[in-house]
Amino acid sequence: MALRILSKTRPRLPSGLALSPSIRCQNLAASQTVVLACPPLSSPARALHLHPARTSYVHQRRRHSTQPPRNEVQAQGGAVQSFPDPDRPDLFYHLFTPPTSLSSTTPVFALSFLSTPLPSILSSTVLGWLPASGEGDSAGLNDFVENESFRDILHEAVQSALRDGADEVQKNSAIQTREGWMHIHDSRNLPALGRIGDPDDIIASVRVENGEIMAETYQPMPSYRLATSDGVLQLTEGLAARLTEILEARVREEQR
Length: 256
Hints:
Layout: E1 17-19, E2 22-27, E3 32-37, E4 48-51, E5 54-56, E6 71-72, E7 81-84, E8 92-96, E9 108-112, E10 128-134, E11 145-146, H1 148-163, H2 168-177, E12 180-185, E13 202-209, E14 212-220, E15 227-228, E16 231-232, H3 237-254
Antiparallel strand pairs: 1-10, 2-3, 4-5, 6-7, 7-8, 8-9, 9-10, 10-11, 12-13, 13-14, 15-16
Helix pairs in contact: 1-3
């Protein structure tokens, strides 16, 4: 599915700010600078290559919000404004103004499942980042940069929820599987019954014996992506609740 960028569909921003169609970002993993650019709104979006042999995508339909920002706070190093995605009420955009650890000149949005303003742009609770710049720029949402630190929290949450039997959907899937390996799929793009999902939508795999999940066999899927053309990470209810618990605990630790 091709990535779509819709005109006149951007989040509510402070005066003078808008999502940027292009930005020069720092590839923290490879320690090299890459240019991330959006195509014209009239043409199909192109895949964005952020890392060698690795691609990240974002597909988020944005609608202008008439509601005021959910949170506004000015703190040293913290987000200055936070608001929910109108299509994903569990997903929040936190605005950081420059200078930041990511850019000395460009405002940046940090995406998170936490509604409260984040203490740091590099918080491990951040899924990834989107650039923001001057008023009048066209909206561009294919420059999402994934936060690798978030993956560790994600897998910790999923594995612990499976161990505790906290998700009914996964428990029922194990009963149906009975014996063998079971995939934990991202709910943004579930496969048809009896089919295996796309590699970038499989969060992990786990062994099932006698219809019971063996959580100690949990294996993260290296090809999984936090954001694809089908959207940002979506979990089943039990897994999502456990992830939120761990994220809230982690941000409290970071604030100490």
